[in-house]
Every structure is written in C-alpha cells, then in structure tokens.
Amino acid sequence: MKILLVRLRLIGDVVFTTPAVTAIRDAFPEAEITYLVEPAAAPVVQGHPGVDVVKVVPHLRGWRRIAADLALARELRRARFDLAVDFHGGPRASFLTWTTGAPRRVGYAVKGRSWMYTEVVPRPADLRPRHSVENQWDLLAHLGRPIAAEPDRVRHRVRMEETAEAEASVASRLSAAGIGPAHRLVVVHVSAGNPFRRWPASHFVELAVQLAANDPDRRIILTSGPSEAEAARAIVAQARQRLPEGVADHVRTGDEYTLAELRSLVARASVYVGGDSGPLHVAATSNVPIVGLYGPTLPARSAPWRPRDVPTRAVERLDLPCRPCDQRRCVTDDFRCLTGIGAEEVVAAVEQVLAAGTRA
Fold first, then answer.
1. In degrees rounded to 5, what are phi and psi of residue 245?
2. Hey, what CATH class is 2-142 in?
3. How far is CA 13 from CA 24, 73, 305, in A?
C-alpha cells in the first residue's frame, strides 16, 4: 500500500502533523508513506520513523510554479498512491492531492475545492480553542483503519529527529564560544512570522539583561530568522551595554543556525523562550522547558504538544476580548496583546519552569 501525506507549510504546522504521522504508521505498518512538503519545513519530517520518502516541493511563484506543479502532478499520478491525506487544504495542496488519482483522498471541507477529495472532513472557520493536533486528528477517522479516537501526548507527541551532523556542528560552535557543560544555556528566539506575533525588541533586551544577571552560569543565545539577524544583533548589543563587565559577554547571538541545528541547540538548553512560531514548535520536539509568548493566538490551540510533565508555561494577556484574532488588522492598532506582556512576567515564568524540573 502507498500513502501520500501533504502539508506544504509552515514549519509549525508541519510539526503539528507529526503525531498524526505516528498514528498512521501504527495503523498501516506495511505501507510506504511519502510526505510532500516545501523546503523550509522538510527537516521536520526527514528522519521521522513513520515516513519512508520525503518529497520536497520547491516554493515557487508565477509561471514557474505552474510548470513545476504540472510536472509534479504527473509524477504523483504515476506513483499510483492508494490513499492521500491533505493536512493543508490550501489551493496548491488540494490540487496536488487531487492529481494523485488515489482511490481515497481525504481532506477538509474547503469552499470550491471539496470535490477534489473522496472523503471530506468539516473544519470550523472560527478560531476555537482546540489544539491544531486535535483538529488534524479529525482526518484520521476517514482512513479506513482503526486509529485512536484522540491523540495521546506521550505516544503521539510532536517530533523532529536530531541529526548527527547538526549535533556535531552545534557542539563545535558552542565549544568555540566558550560554552561548556557547566553553563546553563538559555535560547531566546526573537523572530516571528508576522508583526502580530512579534514581541517588542526593547522587551527582549530587558529579558536578556535580567536572565543574565540572575545567574552568572547562564549563557543567553538569541536566535532569529535570516531576515531578523540584524535585529537580534542589535538586541544583544543593547543588553551588553547594560550588563557589568564580565557578564556582558554572557549574552550573544546565534547567527545562521539551520533548522536542524536549532533543534540540536535547543536540546542542549536549560530553557527555550519564544513566540508562537515554528521554532517554538521545533523546541517542543525536545524535552527542554519552554516559555511561550502568545499574542493574537491561544495556547489552547498551539501550545507545545508533548507530555504534560515536561515543564511548559504560556505567557498571555487574559483580559483582551479581541484575542484570538485573524492577524490581518490590529483593532487597537497597538498590538497590546504582546506589548502588554512585560519582561518581568516572562522572567518569572522562566525561573518557574527551571525550578519545576531539570533538562532531560
């Protein structure tokens, strides 16, 4: 039997499919499972024990994308998949799922595209407080074999395998930076996919200063996406100016970590701090304690999906009727859901998760 799984992007969304991948492998142990994904998120599923083939689809635009998708459609058709599951529901994902010609094609009810599937699963349009992993689990009831009615946070946790190459690269870089086993590493990710999820730079400065000042054995590494590397360096520079000599160099940037290297870096950390974005969900595939910052999104929908005994804290504003929102326009024009979260509150959450358990 041949199964195709489709989730083109984004990184966090692909991470959220990995519990379902585990469940599908359990239900179809004999199957050859192919995962169709775009380049940025491909490292998430490469190495997953439930996936036999990772097919990376280039993220193109215009006529080049049309040409590439038509060629890919022919390739998928020739593969003769028996079952295709579309975790995405976007126009491209729906089209590619349909072109497989698989006898069973499972996807969400999407206006104008539901006819592309043989099994259609309702997907509420409202931003209800139900976890994305559970939403995607709804698809699994239509695969033709018994699967657990609900995902289990232990058996069906999110996962991204650590590679030997990334592990060696990170170990070398930390050693070159003078960071060793005796240091308590704090990884702070300062990027977000859009301005609605971006905590102010000044808040990150205050956070880095307080975390470094609280423990001389801590080493704070600020990571970011490529487009915000300069912003991360500016945050580090400002934090260092406020710290005394001998402590200032305990705060540094983590320039140019690949996604696989970020996964290895986080695995060596005492705590990870960041907004609701792909790197936070990559961090959730490890046992590192996590402090997540939630603005327009809800922890109930996108908090780390893993065993509940792994220390995890969500910091959010609970007094705003505009949360959650569709992240197209801030109705208050000041992003208060994030600007209203102070550094002191995040520092307190970090200290709490560190006290709750040691790194596994």
1. -60, 140
2. alpha beta
3. 17, 23, 12
Residue-wise pLDDT for 41-93, tens only, equals 999 999 999 999 999 998 888 888 889 999 999 999 999 999 999 999 999 99
pTM of the predicted structure, to 2 decimals = 0.94
For the chain, give every residue range classified as CATH 3.40.50.2000.
2-142, 164-356
User: In sequence order, what are the residues at sequence separation of 6 or more whose Cβ sits closer than 8 angstroms to the Cβ of residue 267?
Assistant: 162, 286, 287, 288
Q: Rounded to the nearest 5°, which phi and psi values hold at 272?
A: -120, 135
CATH superfamily for domain 164-356: Glycogen Phosphorylase B; (3.40.50.2000)
Reported as a pLDDT band with limits 50, 70 and 90, residue 167 is very high
Burial of 225 (0-12, 13-18, 19+ CB in 10 A): middle
Q: Which two tokens stand for residue 248?
A: 């200032």
DSSP string, 306-337: S-TTS-EEEEE-SS-TT-S--SS--TTSS-HH
What is the residue whose two structure tokens read 């010609």? 101
> Phi and psi at residue 273, in whole multiples of 5°?
-130, 130
Q: Which of 80, 44, 73 is nearest to 57 (CA)?
A: 73
